[in-house]
Amino acid sequence: MNATPLTPTPLTPTPLTLIGLGPMGHAMATALLDKGHQVTLWNRTASRADDLVERGATLAASPEEAIAANELVILSLTDYDAMYSVLEPAAATLPGRVIVNLSSDTPKKAREAASWAAGHGAAHLTGGVLAPPHGIGKPESSTFYSGPHEAYAKHRATLEVLTGETDYRGEDPGLAALMYQLNMVIFWTSVSSYWYAIALAKANGLSAADILPYASQNMTGMPEFLSFYSARIDADNHEGDVDRLAMGLASMEHVVHTHTDSGVDAALPSAVADLFRRGMEAGHAKDSFSSIVELLGTR
Ligand code: NDP
């Protein structure tokens, strides 16, 4: 399914419950209060709600009281285990509730949670927020959703307060978690490559600021690279006409040696070199780098 259009849905402030006041939940509560919603809060560490209560939020004494207060219950917890810790003792209050779970976890756990919620008479909408706390409340930020469309459509206007874009992926509660984790593997590994580049720069007397323009230019070039490979990968074309894995391995070994010569940890580049070596051993020396995708899928 395509991303929903950017046109914001008209908003009538809806009373709602928000459970979890880490950096994300706190930013969400702030954005909702800014838009005039009546927000009932619960957090394990109650003091995190102090400034929000001063701004008009209601702090519930227990998860039961928080859930009983409203049909719409937004969760922003560390993971789904935390969700069960909070919701299981309060399960009697769940019938008729729409739980919008913006906690990160696996597609499998999201599907299990949706079944668990349904068994207690509640709808479970999975969310994967593609924004840091300072992106909450911004029109350009986006969240993946999946689960019952009826629940999404009913609460979409409120969810658009959290991130201006809501990308509904379908009824399968695992899909939003899957899309989120796909983005997380790209984010965490890319940003880790940046930490490695900075460590190498610093070991050679350069600062993060010195390499910023070059690191940024490198990242800015990625979309063209990705669209070239994605078309070929979907056509099962790993022809080594413009690149070869053998060249990739030689290049990665230069990277590893530059790190070790500089006294810098080489774990991440070494892992990439090992992956390329496995590709070579599997007979892909003359194929494109993209043949690595085949290798990953057959583990
Ligand atoms: P935190 O882990 O800092 O905060 C999590 C919240 O979960 C806190 O309110 C914490 O309560 C509560 N919690 C954790 N374990 C339990 C438990 N066993 N019982 C009750 N409450 C519990 O996370 P963030 O606020 O940073 O993020 C929330 C979710 O959003 C996470 O799943 C994260 O992966 C995801 N996310 C985060 C982003 C970010 O940039 N921070 C960006 C996009 C998604 P207490 O205050 O008492 O510790």
Describe the structure in your own words:
It contains twelve helices and eight strands. It is of the alpha/beta class. The protein folds into two domains: 157 residues, NAD(P)-binding Rossmann-like Domain (Rossmann fold); 117 residues, N-(1-d-carboxylethyl)-l-norvaline Dehydrogenase, domain 2, CATH 1.10.1040. It has an eight-stranded mixed beta sheet with strand order 3-2-1-4-5-6-7-8, with helices on both faces. Helix 5 links the parallel strand 5 and strand 6. Helix 5 packs antiparallel against helix 7 and helix 7 packs across helix 8. The structure holds NADPH dihydro-nicotinamide-adenine-dinucleotide phosphate.
Features of the shown structure:
299 residues; alpha/beta; Rossmann fold; N-(1-d-carboxylethyl)-l-norvaline Dehydrogenase, domain 2; 2 domains; 12 helices; 13% strand; disordered N terminus
